[in-house]
Amino acid sequence: MVESVRRGVVPLIAFVAACLGQLCLVNLVELPTQLHELTRVNPRFAGWVAAGACAGIIVALLVLVAAPRLRAAAPLAVGTTASVFGLALGRAVTTDVQLALALLMLGVAAGGLLGGAVSLTTEPSVPHRTWTAAAWAAPLIGAPAVLDWLALRSSSPQDLRLTLHPPLWGLGFASLLLMGWCILTLLIEADSADTSVVRPAETTWTALVTAAVMPTLAAMLVGFGGGMSVEWLRPLVVAISGATVLGLGLACLAMSRMPSGLPQRGCAAAFAILLCWPSVVSLLLLAEHSESGRRMVLLVALAGAMAGTVWGLAQAHTALVGGQLLVAAGAAAAWLAVSGAVQLLAAPTAVITCGGAAAVVGGVRGALPSSLAVRLVGGAAVGATMLGGLLALPLAWALGGVVPSGRHSATVGAQVLLGLLTAGALLSAGYAATGRTPNAPQSTAQRTTDDGSTHHD
């Protein structure tokens, strides 16, 4: 009875972990408006943001690399514990030490929770892999709109904070649920780790880790260095962002030896969409001053994310290509409508979230037959989410000329990122459409391990 309940709630655990992990990311809708105050608290604030992102990406990717041996319970427990301390430190920031510790703790928490949520999909005892994959993939598209809307409703100019601080009862429930499941799993499956995986795909993982971590190290050098003039800082931000895109593209090419075409195309879709979309929705909400307009953006974003999730689960390959085409079309339409009435923005927002959720969920769904492939796609999605939170707003400033903190500047920043989202989605859709046809999926009882052999659950 206990074991059946523990297995049955795995999709819920994945959903809660993904949402809590998203909550631990620095809130992009409040960061521009509090940037000067946070810099006064700690002049090296930008460097610590990059350090937190670096810690989160490293933790998440190490969790996924070691998933066959480590499993998901231990990373989820560590991430949950770190989230409690990180969220507490990230509220009412007053000292430079508190700011630095909060950013590092939040990065570790986000990496452990998001990496652990992805690892749940590869657990041999999970009965509903498809629903588990959708439970952590869909919040990557839908959760930013909810968190940003809540942050705008509860913002206080006197309270410097790094993330949205949830109600105590909500955080307590999520923490107790995750910790209870982790402890129960560690007790039941203490000796069930997979020790047969002895030859991981070194080249593929090395390429992904390098492409995701190097931009954060470059951002740390810039942030901790200080004293750089704007004339040099703007082209440097553009150069780091361009190198990031190039590195992630090379990481996708490193996956070309995978047995199916869907994993690398799923990674490309995650990179193209998640690098920009969380920042785009933050700026769209920031540019809209009326509560009714923000509520409309939120509702259409959630509706689009739910519809896209269903599409991605039903038709993985079609959703992977068609979803990205929808994202490109919606982003182009939103670029034209962002400076007008909010009613003109509702339809493009719904189209973007529908296509984005379909492409991301479809990429994960297509990779499910292979344990290695689903971990690579999940790592790409988590890494792109964290890199986007670090680089998207500085890139909007570098190309748009203003810090996106008010209505006009947020509109300019949103147009910059919407243009980049259009181009990225079109390129990734073309790559997905022209790639080789994926092999016939294996049965749900079979998974390909890191060394290419077939594993029967």
Structure description:
The protein is an all-alpha fold and 457 residues long. Helices cover 75% and strands 1% of the residues. It has 18 helices and 2 strands. It has a two-stranded antiparallel sheet with strand order 1-2. Helix 8 packs parallel to helix 13. It starts with a helix and ends with a strand. The C terminus is likely disordered.
Q: What is the percentage of strand-forming residues?
A: under 5%
Poorly predicted sequence stretches spanning 5 or more consecutive residues: 195-200, 437-457
Output the strand order for the largest sheet: 1-2
Largest sheet: 2 strands, antiparallel
Compressed to H and E, one letter per element, the order equals HHHHHHHHHHHHHHHHHHEE
Tell the overall outline: globular
Mean pLDDT: 84
Q: How many β strands by DSSP? A: 2
Distance from first to last alpha carbon: 21 Å
Q: How many whole angstroms does the radius of gyration measure?
A: 20 Å
Which structural category do the helix and sheet elements fall into? mainly alpha
The residue fraction in helices comes out at over 70%
Number of helices: 18
